[in-house]
Amino acid sequence: MHAPRVEDKATPYWWEAAPLTPLPQQPLPRNLDVLIVGAGYAGLSAGLVLAREGRSVAAFDAMDPGEGASTRNGGITSGTIRPDYATLTRRFGEEKALAIEAEGKAAREFLYDFIKTEGLVCDFQPVGQFKGAFGYEQYEAMARTADRLAKKLGIEAYAVPYAEQRKYVGTDVYRGGTVRMDIGGLHPAKFHSELLRVALASELTVHGRTPVISIDRDGSGFRVLTAAGTVRARQVLVCTNGYTDAAVPFLRRRLVPVRSRIIATEELAPDVMARLMPKRMMITENREVGFYYRPSPDGRRILLGGRDSSRVGDPAAPKLLLRKGLINLFPELEAVRLSHSWFGNVAMNRDMIPRIFEKDSVVYATGFCGSGVVWAPWVGMHAAHKLMGHEERARTAFDFRPPAFIPFYRGNPWFMPAFIQGYRMHDRIAMWRASR
């Protein structure tokens, strides 16, 4: 018997409609008000704000702009914070915990308004998100969380019992779940392309395929060595996240790049999509290493993603694991072919919270922990106002101390396969308990 065919293309499905376009070479500026490292969502959002305020600003990216996570992610506007409310309260106090949760609502509203007011054509669909529960205890806890979000923050959130589950997702794997209507989906590569368009039109200069090699103090400013030469800048903003390299060693010791992989099915019949994804919602699961999935913007395919424990190359095993997960959710898709499989890096830190912080006068906007569609533009914008000294507009719950460093780590995440396997074991135990 032949092994299942994995995919036709190892490039992101998103690049079909919004292919990466190398930018023309630009003259290297000798002096800048602000130099930005990274031209993904965060770097472009910050650069847009700075350029519109009249600053001379340029963003430098080691790859083509957007080639990293900005055009590889699932396009879900979740703004998820990994630690739950109880954990945030224990670590930072109730006031900080509530401020972090409230800011998620503000960040999503900002993103949606930004898309509308800037006229960004990126297939944004405010369809809501369903989160699946494994077992009655999980369902009860999730229902309480939904009730708290509705009462304290005014978010349209509610529980969905198992008996009504198939109105939201065509699987029996979960035992109910919750819905949040403030979450939607967009086309991440189109969003980046449109963000780049408006940033360039606002006179942000973007240098693609021009890595930053080092950043050094130079009197009251900085001397930044790039692959194209040296630039002097009054201020520096680092927005590298999951693709942080040796140019910023302080940050590299605090962010761990973790692969996230996504598969896309071939086009499915309309009646199949109507059964499996009846409300066209974004879907997540209440697991440590669960799946996230969604319909494509045109409603013809299912895209499913999850953590990838591989570290080098493009092995088949992680793709087959996602395919197995897809079939477990939707057994009728067993014979369906995959059209695309790809991966990209997300950046985790020990607190699992996005951050703005300052170290040796360099400002950092980073650490989005797999939820950069919402957090990267929000944090980038606030970092820009911080650089300009706009105290009120810069205020955010995410501007505080740097993430803690990771002992014995300098950029090679050798420990991640073991960590991910540990999380999967935790999930298996939790599911076994839920099924008793």
From TrEMBL:
Residues 33-385 form the FAD dependent oxidoreductase domain. It comes from Bradyrhizobium niftali. One of its GO terms (cellular component) is cytoplasm. This is FAD-binding oxidoreductase. InterPro entries: FAD-dep_OxRdtase, FAD/NAD-bd_sf. Gene3D superfamilies: D-Amino Acid Oxidase, subunit A, domain 2, FAD/NAD(P)-binding domain. It comes from the Bacteria. The keyword Oxidoreductase applies. It holds the Pfam family DAO. GO terms for molecular function: oxidoreductase activity. Keywords: Oxidoreductase. The keyword Oxidoreductase applies.
